[in-house]
Write a structure and sequence with these properties.
Blueprint (H helix, E strand, L loop, with lengths): L3 E4 L7 E3 L14 E4 L7 H11 L5 H4 L27 E3 L1 H7 L4 E5 L9 H14 L4 E5 L3 H13 L2 E7 L5 H9 L3 E5 L3 H15 L2 E2 L5 H17 L7 E5 L4 H15 L8 E7 L4 H8 L25 H10 L3 E5 L1 H13 L6 H15 L9 E5 L7 H8 L26 H9 L1
Parallel strand pairs: 5-13, 6-7, 6-9, 7-8, 10-11, 10-13, 11-12
Antiparallel strand pairs: 1-2, 1-3, 4-5
Length: 433
């Protein structure tokens, strides 16, 4: 397989070997993506091959990433690292559908991954590339999920993981994972975007492989979320795929996956993408609203949905192309909307981290605006597990949730725990009431 790194900028399109340790085009500074020849098998044979692998006990076949390896840029699987990632469910949610104004809705729940988020799909490929390059140390900047995932996959691969997080701006449920998996963790007194610039300098100076979503091999792994979703639906694309927007790596990955699947004849039409951002961290929304140009970063992004608290998303050019290619839309939602949507998802017996709930809040806004019709077929991506940020849940249900600036958030579905005496009659009365 003659895979290459290709500059994403249409005016450049310079090509480099996949063995070059680069994250931007040396010629123009543009983002890079991995390009490789499509598989020679017809669509029907690929579908059958992937279906048959689901019955196999081989580790690569049991992975929801490596099972689709014909669409990954590797021809030697000796470096593949798997914790049996992927294989996440597609869950119908009629109660959430009614709340959002839809007739039907399903959640593709990436929180069922080994470390509890979608990052595992991408990290499996990113760490495999690190091994292919002979790297011994890997690093990432993270608001939580990336650090947990990289730490786990680095540990599985025998690599040293270096994690950099904004001090005081990470949920403890996520930080605990990085610590438990053995990563050296640095809490830096800066925001995500400032730390990413710092770590890029350190990576080049110290020979460390960077595994943020600017790494094109991360994007390759995250493509498989869409491939698996469509396979679960019998290769019938929904009308909409809705996902949260932070660093926009998933948006870039979904766009690339859909282009490749359409080119191979695996799907007969492109679903529309809808990307939802938090109001306090919505530079991509503002870019699309202006009609294009260059993204204007948000200097101090603010949202309790820490996974999407990013003001300068590096993958925005790829994400913008994905929105244009799918006739997609971008919306933003308020903190209270995210909080209530999260509670509604919980009432479905599903649960998710705060950033995931931006999808349902955004769907409700888009239905109200007439952009999504009530009868359309919608799949929303839940990116992280319920227990990624349990403190948020407790504060919501105890009506103690506040904005980053300290303002109270009015919540609609609080389920406050009761303090009661050890008295059967009193408790029976409360239950009956």
């Amino acid at each position: 397989m003659a895979a290459e790194l290709v500059c994403f900028e249409p005016s450049c399109r310079a090509r480099y070997p996949v063995t070059d340790i680069i994250y931007n085009c040396p010629r123009c500074g543009g983002l890079l993506e991995v390009d490789f020849p499509p598989p020679s098998l017809p669509a029907s044979s690929l579908r059958e091959l992937w279906r048959c692998r689901r019955l196999s006990d081989a580790p690569l076949d049991r992975s929801g990433v490596w099972r689709f390896r014909e669409l990954l840029p590797f021809d030697d699987y000796s470096h593949a690292v798997t914790l049996l990632e992927g294989n996440t469910p597609l869950l119908p949610a009629p109660r959430a559908a009614r709340w959002a104004g839809l007739e039907r809705l399903a959640f593709k729940h990436q929180g069922f991954n080994p470390t509890g988020s979608f990052k595992d799909n991408g990290m499996s490929c990113g760490v495999a590339q690190a091994l292919r390059l002979g790297m011994r140390r890997v690093a990432c900047v993270s608001t939580g999920n990336t650090s947990a995932s990289m730490a786990a996959y680095a540990a599985a691969a025998g690599l040293q993981a270096l994690v950099f997080v904004p001090h005081g701006q990470i949920a403890f449920g996520k930080l605990a994972q990085a610590l438990e998996y053995g990563a050296r963790t640095f809490q830096v007194e800066a925001n995500f975007d400032q730390i990413l610039a710092l770590v890029r300098v350190l990576a080049e100076r110290l020979g460390i492989y960077l595994l943020n979503s600017i790494n094109p091999f991360r994007i390759e792994g995250q493509k498989t979320i869409v491939i698996e979703l469509l396979e679960q639906r019998g290769w019938r694309p929904p009308d909409w795929i809705v996902l949260p927007g932070g660093n926009l790596g998933n948006t870039a990955a979904f766009g690339k996956a859909l282009r490749e699947l359409a080119g191979l004849g695996l799907i007969d039409r492109m679903p529309r993408l809808a990307v939802i951002q938090a109001e306090g961290a919505a530079p991509f929304y503002e870019l699309v609203r202006r009609g294009g140009g260059r993204l204007q970063p948000v200097a101090k992004p603010e949202t309790l949905a820490t996974a999407i608290r990013i003001g300068d998303p590096v993958s925005w050019p790829k994400a913008l192309e994905a929105i244009r290619a799918t006739d997609g839309v971008v919306e933003k939602v308020a903190e209270a909307e995210i909080a209530d949507a999260k509670a509604v998802i919980g009432q479905c017996g599903i649960g998710c981290e705060p950033a995931s709930a931006a999808t349902l809040a955004g769907i409700r806004r888009l239905v109200d605006a007439g952009l999504i019709r009530p009868g359309e077929d919608v799949v929303a991506v839940l990116t992280g597990h319920l227990l990624k940020d349990p403190d948020y849940i407790y504060r919501y249900h105890c009506r103690k949730l506040a904005t980053p600036s300290g303002g109270a958030i009015e919540v609609s579905y609080a389920n406050q725990p009761l303090v009661v005496p050890c008295d059967a009659d009193r408790i029976a009365g409360l239950i009956a009431g």
